[in-house]
């Protein structure tokens, strides 16, 4: 039994097996950071790759993310010193006036699966709340989601305010009506049309910082 088995269990979407194997590795004295960084995170990278290639679909991706979360919940009490654990901090939320959260939740899970700390503000989030959270949590990236064309202007207003209040924080946008063209127009630092792409985008932006 190795960390590779945890990697495989995530790809097999087997939540119970991930929990069982994670517990066994901890009992055996395996380094918790190794379980996370060598088993779980690479598995979610592979899940994202397979989704992008059309080999995995949305329901499977959700189940893989949930399987990983089940394993992480066992590791969390043992993970100390967040600087060692997380590659960065991402604040995410659906903008003011919009109550849709399925896409946003999936993006949050994939970003978390890639090794980042995610602060999820939920839905109907106003500009001030985004700014306050990015400062309180020392965010590297703020992610804005919208599913309604009527709430897209809120993205522009929020990005403008974030750039003024915290110029070093990167901003990314996504959601069904959002396009790369719109993201460029409102001054966002990045755009993705799916959850694995958003996780890759966050990694790229943080590396550039």
Characterization of this structure:
- This protein has helices at 3-11, 15-27, 32-52, 58-75, 82-85, 102-113, 127-136, 152-165, 180-185, 195-208, and strands spanning 89-94, 117-120, 141-145, 170-174, 190-191.
- By secondary structure, it is α/β, with parallel strands linked by helices.
- It has two domains: 3-83, Methyltransferase, Methionine Synthase (B12-binding Domains), Chain A, domain 1; 86-208, 3-Layer(aba) Sandwich (Rossmann fold).
- A five-stranded parallel β-sheet has the order 2-1-3-4-5, with helices on both faces.
- α4 packs across α6 (102-113) and α6 packs across α10.
- The model has no long low-confidence stretch (mean pLDDT 92).
Give the topology, please.
Elements (H helix, E strand, L loop, with lengths): L2 H9 L3 H13 L4 H21 L5 H18 L6 H4 L3 E6 L7 H12 L3 E4 L6 H10 L4 E5 L6 H14 L4 E5 L5 H6 L4 E2 L3 H14 L1
Helix pairs in contact: 1-2, 1-3, 2-4, 3-4, 4-6, 6-10, 7-8
Sheet with the most strands? Answer: 5 strands, parallel
Number of domains: 2
Assembly category: single chain
Q: What's the rounded overall pLDDT mean?
A: 92
How many helical elements? 10
What is CATH's topology name of the largest domain?
Answer: Rossmann fold
- Shape-level CATH architecture of the largest domain: 3-Layer(aba) Sandwich
What is the total tally of β strands?
Answer: 5
Distance separating the two termini = 38 Å
- What are the segments in which pLDDT stays under 50 over at least 5 consecutive residues? none
Rg over CA atoms, rounded to whole Å, is 17 Å
Give the C-level CATH assignment of the largest domain. Alpha Beta
Beta fraction of the residues?
5-15%
- How helical, in percent, are the residues? 55-70%
The chain-level structural class is alpha/beta
């Amino acid at each position: 039994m190795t960390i590779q088995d945890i990697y495989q269990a995530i790809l097999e979407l087997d939540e119970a097996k991930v929990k069982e194997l994670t517990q066994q590795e901890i009992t055996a004295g395996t380094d918790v950071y190794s379980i996370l960084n060598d088993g779980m995170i690479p598995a979610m990278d592979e899940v994202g790759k397979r989704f992008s290639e059309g080999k995995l679909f949305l329901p499977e991706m959700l189940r893989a993310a949930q399987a990983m979360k089940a394993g992480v919940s066992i590791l969390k009490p043992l993970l100390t010193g967040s600087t060692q654990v997380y590659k960065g901090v991402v604040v995410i939320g659906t903008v003011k006036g919009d109550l849709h959260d399925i896409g946003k939740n999936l993006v949050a899970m994939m970003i978390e699966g890639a090794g980042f700390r995610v602060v999820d503000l939920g839905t109907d989030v106003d500009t001030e709340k985004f700014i306050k959270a990015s400062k309180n949590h020392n965010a590297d990236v703020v992610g804005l989601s919208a599913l309604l064309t009527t709430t897209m202007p809120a993205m522009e207003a929020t990005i403008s305010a974030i750039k003024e209040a915290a110029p070093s924080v990167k901003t990314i946008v996504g959601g069904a009506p959002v396009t790369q063209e719109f993201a460029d127009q409102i001054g966002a630092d990045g755009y993705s049309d799916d959850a694995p792409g958003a996780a890759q985008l966050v990694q790229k932006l943080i590396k550039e910082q």
